[in-house]
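Entry type: protein chain
Record version: 2
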Amino acid sequence: MDNDLTGFSKKNNLDQGDYYLSDEGYIVFTEKYHLKRGYCCKSGCKHCPYGFNPKTGELKKPI
């Protein structure tokens, strides 16, 4: 698998600290990226700084 994501990051204006590759090869967005985006997408992201609970559908922290 090609781990070169330079085209991806340039295309979507991502910085190096905005994501990393999981062991399975998925792109995982960091807390830094979520804060830069400015809102919760309510997808249950691993590094969600807004405290979204996918089981209840509620935010634990106010946005």
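Comment: DSSP finds two helices and four strands in the chain.
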